[in-house]
Amino acid sequence: MSQLPVKTRLGTAPASSSSSSSKTTTTGKTYAKKTTVQEQRTVVVIQTFLPVFAVLRALDPEAVAWACFFGAAYWIFRYVLFRVAPKHEKPAGASKLRKDVWELRPDIAGVKRKFHTEWYSNLVSLLHAPAVTVGGLLCLWQSRNDDAVACFFGYRWLPARVCGMFLGYLFYDLALIVASPSMRSAGLLVHHALFITCAMVCKQGSFFKFPFAWLIAGEMSTPLLSIRWMLAASKRSRGNMYLAVCVALLVAFAAVRVFLYGYGLSHLWRHYELIVDVVMRGSGKKAPALASWRIPFFSPVSGGISVEAIEAAAADVSGLGVLSQCLLVVPHLLTIGYVLNLTWFTLLAVGLRRVLRRRTDVTIKES
Protein backbone atom coordinates (compact mmCIF):
# COMPACT_ATOMS: atom_id res chain seq x y z
CA MET A 1 0.00 0.00 0.00
CA SER A 2 1.23 3.49 -0.81
CA GLN A 3 1.76 5.77 2.15
CA LEU A 4 -0.25 8.97 2.37
CA PRO A 5 1.52 12.28 2.99
CA VAL A 6 1.71 13.24 6.66
CA LYS A 7 -0.68 16.03 7.60
CA THR A 8 0.41 18.98 9.67
CA ARG A 9 -1.39 22.05 10.92
CA LEU A 10 -0.61 23.86 7.66
CA GLY A 11 -1.37 20.91 5.42
CA THR A 12 0.94 18.42 3.78
CA ALA A 13 4.46 18.17 5.20
CA PRO A 14 6.95 20.15 3.14
CA ALA A 15 9.31 18.34 0.80
CA SER A 16 12.33 20.23 2.16
CA SER A 17 13.12 17.41 4.58
CA SER A 18 13.46 14.92 1.74
CA SER A 19 15.53 17.37 -0.30
CA SER A 20 17.80 18.06 2.67
CA SER A 21 18.25 14.34 3.21
CA SER A 22 19.08 13.91 -0.48
CA LYS A 23 21.62 16.73 -0.20
CA THR A 24 23.11 15.03 2.83
CA THR A 25 23.28 11.77 0.92
CA THR A 26 24.93 13.49 -2.06
CA THR A 27 27.43 15.22 0.21
CA GLY A 28 28.18 11.90 1.85
CA LYS A 29 28.75 10.27 -1.53
CA THR A 30 31.03 13.12 -2.61
CA TYR A 31 33.01 12.88 0.62
CA ALA A 32 33.25 9.11 0.24
CA LYS A 33 34.42 9.55 -3.36
CA LYS A 34 37.08 12.07 -2.32
CA THR A 35 38.18 9.76 0.48
CA THR A 36 38.41 6.85 -1.94
CA VAL A 37 40.54 8.88 -4.36
CA GLN A 38 42.84 9.99 -1.53
CA GLU A 39 43.17 6.39 -0.33
CA GLN A 40 43.99 5.24 -3.86
CA ARG A 41 46.66 7.92 -4.20
CA THR A 42 48.11 6.97 -0.83
CA VAL A 43 48.25 3.32 -1.86
CA VAL A 44 49.95 4.24 -5.14
CA VAL A 45 52.55 6.34 -3.33
CA ILE A 46 53.22 3.58 -0.79
CA GLN A 47 53.40 0.88 -3.45
CA THR A 48 55.81 3.05 -5.44
CA PHE A 49 58.15 4.39 -2.80
CA LEU A 50 58.53 1.34 -0.53
CA PRO A 51 59.99 -1.00 -3.20
CA VAL A 52 62.23 1.80 -4.47
CA PHE A 53 63.40 2.53 -0.92
CA ALA A 54 64.07 -1.18 -0.34
CA VAL A 55 66.09 -1.44 -3.55
CA LEU A 56 68.02 1.72 -2.70
CA ARG A 57 68.79 0.46 0.80
CA ALA A 58 70.10 -2.80 -0.62
CA LEU A 59 72.22 -1.03 -3.23
CA ASP A 60 73.76 2.12 -1.83
CA PRO A 61 73.11 4.03 1.42
CA GLU A 62 74.43 7.24 -0.11
CA ALA A 63 71.82 7.08 -2.86
CA VAL A 64 69.16 6.51 -0.18
CA ALA A 65 70.23 9.66 1.63
CA TRP A 66 70.12 11.78 -1.52
CA ALA A 67 66.77 10.30 -2.61
CA CYS A 68 65.33 11.20 0.81
CA PHE A 69 66.83 14.69 0.55
CA PHE A 70 65.25 15.40 -2.83
CA GLY A 71 61.96 13.87 -1.70
CA ALA A 72 61.96 16.14 1.35
CA ALA A 73 62.74 19.12 -0.88
CA TYR A 74 59.73 18.23 -3.03
CA TRP A 75 57.34 18.16 -0.08
CA ILE A 76 58.84 21.35 1.36
CA PHE A 77 58.24 23.12 -1.94
CA ARG A 78 54.74 21.68 -2.11
CA TYR A 79 53.53 22.67 1.34
CA VAL A 80 55.72 25.51 2.59
CA LEU A 81 54.79 27.65 -0.41
CA PHE A 82 51.15 27.40 0.65
CA ARG A 83 51.99 28.89 4.03
CA VAL A 84 54.40 31.57 2.84
CA ALA A 85 52.24 32.73 -0.07
CA PRO A 86 48.56 33.63 0.51
CA LYS A 87 46.23 32.12 -2.03
CA HIS A 88 43.80 34.82 -3.11
CA GLU A 89 45.60 38.12 -2.80
CA LYS A 90 49.09 39.33 -3.59
CA PRO A 91 50.93 40.47 -0.44
CA ALA A 92 50.85 44.26 -0.54
CA GLY A 93 53.90 45.92 0.94
CA ALA A 94 55.75 42.62 1.20
CA SER A 95 59.39 42.19 0.28
CA LYS A 96 60.39 41.40 -3.30
CA LEU A 97 61.54 37.95 -2.21
CA ARG A 98 58.12 37.09 -0.80
CA LYS A 99 56.39 38.33 -3.94
CA ASP A 100 58.66 36.12 -6.03
CA VAL A 101 57.84 33.17 -3.76
CA TRP A 102 54.14 34.01 -4.13
CA GLU A 103 54.43 33.65 -7.90
CA LEU A 104 56.06 30.21 -7.54
CA ARG A 105 52.72 28.72 -6.51
CA PRO A 106 51.31 26.84 -9.50
CA ASP A 107 47.68 27.75 -8.78
CA ILE A 108 48.61 31.46 -8.66
CA ALA A 109 50.74 31.11 -11.81
CA GLY A 110 47.75 29.69 -13.71
CA VAL A 111 49.06 26.13 -14.04
CA LYS A 112 46.49 23.37 -14.53
CA ARG A 113 45.99 21.16 -11.50
CA LYS A 114 47.21 18.00 -13.24
CA PHE A 115 50.60 19.65 -13.81
CA HIS A 116 51.16 20.76 -10.19
CA THR A 117 53.31 17.72 -9.39
CA GLU A 118 55.53 18.37 -12.40
CA TRP A 119 55.78 22.04 -11.41
CA TYR A 120 57.20 21.18 -7.97
CA SER A 121 59.41 18.52 -9.56
CA ASN A 122 60.97 21.19 -11.76
CA LEU A 123 61.66 23.31 -8.68
CA VAL A 124 63.58 20.38 -7.18
CA SER A 125 65.41 19.95 -10.48
CA LEU A 126 66.57 23.56 -10.21
CA LEU A 127 68.35 22.51 -6.99
CA HIS A 128 69.87 19.30 -8.31
CA ALA A 129 71.05 20.24 -11.80
CA PRO A 130 73.45 23.09 -10.91
CA ALA A 131 75.02 21.03 -8.11
CA VAL A 132 75.80 17.98 -10.27
CA THR A 133 76.87 20.20 -13.18
CA VAL A 134 79.55 21.81 -11.00
CA GLY A 135 80.54 18.35 -9.80
CA GLY A 136 80.79 17.08 -13.39
CA LEU A 137 82.97 20.02 -14.46
CA LEU A 138 85.27 19.41 -11.48
CA CYS A 139 85.52 15.73 -12.47
CA LEU A 140 86.43 16.78 -16.01
CA TRP A 141 89.14 19.03 -14.60
CA GLN A 142 90.51 16.17 -12.49
CA SER A 143 90.67 13.91 -15.55
CA ARG A 144 92.60 16.34 -17.75
CA ASN A 145 95.97 14.55 -17.22
CA ASP A 146 94.70 10.96 -16.90
CA ASP A 147 96.02 8.24 -19.19
CA ALA A 148 93.74 5.82 -21.03
CA VAL A 149 93.47 3.36 -18.13
CA ALA A 150 92.93 6.02 -15.45
CA CYS A 151 90.04 7.51 -17.47
CA PHE A 152 88.01 4.35 -16.96
CA PHE A 153 89.41 2.44 -13.98
CA GLY A 154 90.62 3.28 -10.48
CA TYR A 155 88.82 4.81 -7.52
CA ARG A 156 88.52 8.57 -7.07
CA TRP A 157 86.56 10.27 -4.29
CA LEU A 158 84.83 13.14 -6.13
CA PRO A 159 83.24 11.15 -9.01
CA ALA A 160 81.89 8.63 -6.50
CA ARG A 161 80.22 11.37 -4.45
CA VAL A 162 78.71 13.15 -7.46
CA CYS A 163 77.53 9.81 -8.84
CA GLY A 164 75.80 9.05 -5.53
CA MET A 165 73.92 12.35 -5.69
CA PHE A 166 72.94 11.76 -9.32
CA LEU A 167 71.78 8.19 -8.62
CA GLY A 168 69.67 9.29 -5.65
CA TYR A 169 67.98 11.98 -7.74
CA LEU A 170 67.24 9.51 -10.54
CA PHE A 171 65.54 7.11 -8.13
CA TYR A 172 63.54 9.94 -6.55
CA ASP A 173 62.47 11.26 -9.95
CA LEU A 174 61.63 7.78 -11.26
CA ALA A 175 59.38 7.14 -8.25
CA LEU A 176 57.66 10.49 -8.82
CA ILE A 177 57.13 9.70 -12.52
CA VAL A 178 55.58 6.32 -11.73
CA ALA A 179 53.30 7.83 -9.06
CA SER A 180 52.15 10.75 -11.25
CA PRO A 181 50.23 9.90 -14.46
CA SER A 182 50.78 13.39 -15.89
CA MET A 183 54.56 12.89 -15.82
CA ARG A 184 54.69 9.42 -17.36
CA SER A 185 56.60 9.33 -20.62
CA ALA A 186 58.20 6.44 -22.48
CA GLY A 187 61.23 8.58 -23.31
CA LEU A 188 61.74 9.61 -19.68
CA LEU A 189 61.37 6.04 -18.42
CA VAL A 190 63.94 4.76 -20.95
CA HIS A 191 66.24 7.68 -20.13
CA HIS A 192 66.08 7.04 -16.37
CA ALA A 193 66.47 3.26 -16.76
CA LEU A 194 69.57 3.70 -18.94
CA PHE A 195 71.29 6.21 -16.70
CA ILE A 196 70.36 4.44 -13.46
CA THR A 197 72.06 1.32 -14.85
CA CYS A 198 75.13 3.28 -15.93
CA ALA A 199 75.34 5.18 -12.63
CA MET A 200 75.01 1.99 -10.57
CA VAL A 201 77.80 0.30 -12.54
CA CYS A 202 80.07 3.33 -12.27
CA LYS A 203 79.32 3.84 -8.57
CA GLN A 204 80.39 0.33 -7.57
CA GLY A 205 84.12 1.03 -8.05
CA SER A 206 84.32 4.55 -9.45
CA PHE A 207 84.57 3.11 -12.96
CA PHE A 208 84.26 5.20 -16.12
CA LYS A 209 85.20 8.43 -14.36
CA PHE A 210 85.80 10.42 -17.54
CA PRO A 211 82.60 9.23 -19.31
CA PHE A 212 80.62 10.03 -16.16
CA ALA A 213 82.15 13.52 -16.05
CA TRP A 214 81.08 14.50 -19.57
CA LEU A 215 77.76 12.75 -19.10
CA ILE A 216 76.87 14.63 -15.91
CA ALA A 217 78.09 17.93 -17.38
CA GLY A 218 75.10 17.58 -19.73
CA GLU A 219 72.88 18.61 -16.81
CA MET A 220 73.96 22.17 -17.58
CA SER A 221 70.97 22.45 -19.91
CA THR A 222 68.45 21.09 -17.38
CA PRO A 223 67.75 24.37 -15.48
CA LEU A 224 66.90 26.09 -18.77
CA LEU A 225 64.63 23.19 -19.70
CA SER A 226 62.83 23.48 -16.34
CA ILE A 227 62.40 27.26 -16.66
CA ARG A 228 61.09 26.86 -20.22
CA TRP A 229 58.52 24.30 -19.09
CA MET A 230 57.41 26.46 -16.16
CA LEU A 231 56.97 29.50 -18.41
CA ALA A 232 54.90 27.47 -20.87
CA ALA A 233 52.79 25.88 -18.10
CA SER A 234 52.04 29.30 -16.61
CA LYS A 235 50.92 30.64 -20.02
CA ARG A 236 53.92 32.93 -20.48
CA SER A 237 55.13 31.47 -23.75
CA ARG A 238 54.57 34.65 -25.78
CA GLY A 239 57.01 36.95 -24.01
CA ASN A 240 60.60 37.86 -24.72
CA MET A 241 61.82 35.88 -21.72
CA TYR A 242 60.41 32.65 -23.14
CA LEU A 243 62.14 33.28 -26.48
CA ALA A 244 65.46 34.03 -24.76
CA VAL A 245 65.20 30.85 -22.68
CA CYS A 246 64.39 28.77 -25.80
CA VAL A 247 67.43 30.13 -27.65
CA ALA A 248 69.72 29.63 -24.63
CA LEU A 249 68.36 26.11 -24.13
CA LEU A 250 69.00 25.13 -27.75
CA VAL A 251 72.57 26.48 -27.61
CA ALA A 252 73.33 24.84 -24.25
CA PHE A 253 71.74 21.54 -25.30
CA ALA A 254 73.80 21.49 -28.50
CA ALA A 255 77.00 22.31 -26.59
CA VAL A 256 76.76 19.73 -23.81
CA ARG A 257 74.37 17.03 -25.02
CA VAL A 258 75.28 16.90 -28.70
CA PHE A 259 78.90 18.04 -29.15
CA LEU A 260 80.41 17.27 -25.71
CA TYR A 261 78.42 14.03 -25.45
CA GLY A 262 79.42 13.09 -29.01
CA TYR A 263 83.10 13.75 -28.32
CA GLY A 264 82.96 11.72 -25.11
CA LEU A 265 81.14 8.86 -26.84
CA SER A 266 83.75 8.72 -29.63
CA HIS A 267 86.50 8.71 -26.96
CA LEU A 268 84.73 5.84 -25.21
CA TRP A 269 84.38 3.71 -28.35
CA ARG A 270 88.01 4.30 -29.34
CA HIS A 271 89.01 2.77 -26.01
CA TYR A 272 86.45 -0.04 -26.11
CA GLU A 273 89.05 -2.74 -26.90
CA LEU A 274 91.01 -1.64 -23.83
CA ILE A 275 87.87 -1.91 -21.69
CA VAL A 276 87.15 -5.41 -23.03
CA ASP A 277 90.75 -6.46 -22.37
CA VAL A 278 90.64 -5.25 -18.75
CA VAL A 279 87.24 -6.83 -18.05
CA MET A 280 88.25 -10.17 -19.55
CA ARG A 281 91.52 -10.21 -17.61
CA GLY A 282 89.59 -9.47 -14.44
CA SER A 283 87.20 -12.34 -15.21
CA GLY A 284 90.07 -14.74 -15.95
CA LYS A 285 89.13 -15.01 -19.62
CA LYS A 286 90.91 -14.25 -22.85
CA ALA A 287 89.85 -11.08 -24.65
CA PRO A 288 88.18 -11.77 -28.04
CA ALA A 289 89.49 -10.34 -31.29
CA LEU A 290 87.36 -7.27 -31.98
CA ALA A 291 89.04 -6.14 -35.21
CA SER A 292 86.45 -7.97 -37.31
CA TRP A 293 83.57 -5.79 -36.06
CA ARG A 294 85.40 -2.56 -35.39
CA ILE A 295 83.16 0.49 -35.72
CA PRO A 296 83.98 2.71 -38.74
CA PHE A 297 85.69 6.05 -38.00
CA PHE A 298 86.53 4.90 -34.44
CA SER A 299 90.11 3.68 -34.71
CA PRO A 300 91.22 2.07 -31.43
CA VAL A 301 93.95 3.58 -29.30
CA SER A 302 97.22 1.65 -29.38
CA GLY A 303 100.52 2.19 -27.59
CA GLY A 304 101.38 4.15 -24.49
CA ILE A 305 99.54 1.76 -22.13
CA SER A 306 101.61 -0.30 -19.72
CA VAL A 307 100.76 -3.91 -18.95
CA GLU A 308 101.12 -3.18 -15.22
CA ALA A 309 98.37 -0.54 -15.40
CA ILE A 310 96.08 -2.96 -17.23
CA GLU A 311 96.73 -5.71 -14.67
CA ALA A 312 96.02 -3.31 -11.78
CA ALA A 313 92.74 -2.25 -13.40
CA ALA A 314 91.84 -5.92 -13.99
CA ALA A 315 92.41 -6.62 -10.29
CA ASP A 316 89.91 -3.86 -9.42
CA VAL A 317 87.38 -5.23 -11.89
CA SER A 318 87.71 -8.78 -10.54
CA GLY A 319 86.08 -7.64 -7.31
CA LEU A 320 82.80 -7.04 -9.14
CA GLY A 321 82.34 -10.70 -10.06
CA VAL A 322 79.50 -11.22 -12.52
CA LEU A 323 78.72 -7.48 -12.53
CA SER A 324 82.01 -6.83 -14.34
CA GLN A 325 80.28 -7.87 -17.57
CA CYS A 326 77.96 -4.90 -17.15
CA LEU A 327 80.91 -2.61 -17.89
CA LEU A 328 80.83 -3.87 -21.47
CA VAL A 329 77.19 -2.83 -21.82
CA VAL A 330 77.68 0.78 -20.68
CA PRO A 331 78.96 2.10 -24.07
CA HIS A 332 75.92 0.63 -25.82
CA LEU A 333 73.54 2.20 -23.31
CA LEU A 334 75.24 5.57 -23.67
CA THR A 335 74.90 5.29 -27.45
CA ILE A 336 71.14 4.81 -27.04
CA GLY A 337 71.14 7.86 -24.76
CA TYR A 338 72.89 9.87 -27.48
CA VAL A 339 70.17 8.91 -29.95
CA LEU A 340 67.60 10.18 -27.43
CA ASN A 341 69.55 13.43 -27.10
CA LEU A 342 69.59 13.92 -30.88
CA THR A 343 65.83 13.29 -30.98
CA TRP A 344 65.18 15.83 -28.22
CA PHE A 345 67.52 18.35 -29.87
CA THR A 346 65.46 18.07 -33.06
CA LEU A 347 62.26 18.65 -31.08
CA LEU A 348 63.79 21.71 -29.38
CA ALA A 349 64.82 23.14 -32.75
CA VAL A 350 61.32 22.57 -34.14
CA GLY A 351 59.81 24.22 -31.06
CA LEU A 352 62.07 27.27 -31.39
CA ARG A 353 61.18 27.57 -35.06
CA ARG A 354 57.49 27.47 -34.13
CA VAL A 355 57.98 30.24 -31.56
CA LEU A 356 59.83 32.44 -34.06
CA ARG A 357 57.18 31.86 -36.72
CA ARG A 358 54.41 32.75 -34.27
CA ARG A 359 56.13 35.99 -33.31
CA THR A 360 56.68 36.84 -36.99
CA ASP A 361 52.99 36.30 -37.75
CA VAL A 362 51.99 38.55 -34.83
CA THR A 363 54.37 41.28 -36.03
CA ILE A 364 52.96 41.12 -39.57
CA LYS A 365 49.39 41.37 -38.29
CA GLU A 366 50.22 44.35 -36.08
CA SER A 367 51.94 46.18 -38.94
From TrEMBL:
One GO CC annotation: membrane
Domain of life: Eukaryota
PROSITE patterns in alphabetical order: TLC (PS50922)
Principal place of residence: membrane
Pfam families tied to this protein: TRAM_LAG1_CLN8
Keyword vocabulary terms for this entry: Membrane, Transmembrane, Transmembrane helix
Domain TLC: 114-357
Residue spans of biased composition, Low complexity class: 16-31
Disordered, as annotated region: 1-31
Transmembrane portions of the chain: 63-81, 119-138, 158-179, 186-206, 212-231, 243-264, 329-350
A Gene Ontology biological process term: lipid homeostasis
Subcellular location(s) of the protein: Membrane
Topology class, membrane: Multi-pass membrane protein
Protein name listed in UniProt: TLC domain-containing protein
Naturally occurring in which organism (per UniProt): Pycnococcus provasolii
Lineage, top ranks: Eukaryota, Viridiplantae, Chlorophyta, Pseudoscourfieldiophyceae, Pseudoscourfieldiales
